[in-house]
């Protein structure tokens, strides 16, 4: 995933997801990003462990973005 898509994913995590959120909640929200290639969404979600997250920073950290 390039820096532009990573930045967009970070913004999406902050703006379009209500926390607390499960991995399933995050996946459903990511699927609304129709302009992001499926392979990028899958690559991102494969890095996110099953858990309940309380902030975008927690998700980013779990995905190795921070």
Could you walk me through the main structural features you see in this protein, from its secondary elements to its overall organization?
The structure is a single chain. The protein is mainly alpha-helical. It has one domain. It has a two-stranded antiparallel sheet with strand order 1-2. It is globular, with a radius of gyration of 10 Å. The relative contact order is 0.21. The mean pLDDT is 87.
Sheet with the most strands: spatial strand order: 1-2
Strand-and-helix sequence, N→C? HEHHEH
- Quote the beta fraction: 5-15%
Largest sheet: 2 strands, antiparallel
What would you call the shape? globular
Low-pLDDT stretches: none
How much helicity do the residues have?
Answer: 55-70%
- As a whole number of angstroms, the C-alpha radius of gyration is 10 Å
Number of structurally distinct domains? 1
Which properties best describe this structure?
66 residues; two-stranded antiparallel ribbon; 4 helices; mainly alpha; globular; 2 strands; 58% helix
Secondary structure layout plus pairing:
Elements: H1 3-15, E1 21-22, H2 23-30, H3 38-47, E2 52-53, H4 56-62
Antiparallel strand pairs: 1-2
Summarize the structure.
58% of the residues lie in helices and 6% in strands. The chain has 66 residues and is mostly helical. The mean pLDDT is 87.
């Amino acid at each position: 995933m390039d820096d532009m898509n990573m930045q967009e994913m970070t913004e999406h995590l902050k703006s379009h997801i209500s926390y607390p959120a499960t991995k399933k909640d995050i996946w459903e929200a990511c699927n609304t990003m129709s302009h992001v290639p499926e392979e990028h969404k899958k690559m991102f979600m494969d890095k996110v462990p099953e858990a309940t997250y309380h902030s975008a920073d927690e998700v980013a950290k779990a995905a190795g973005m921070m």
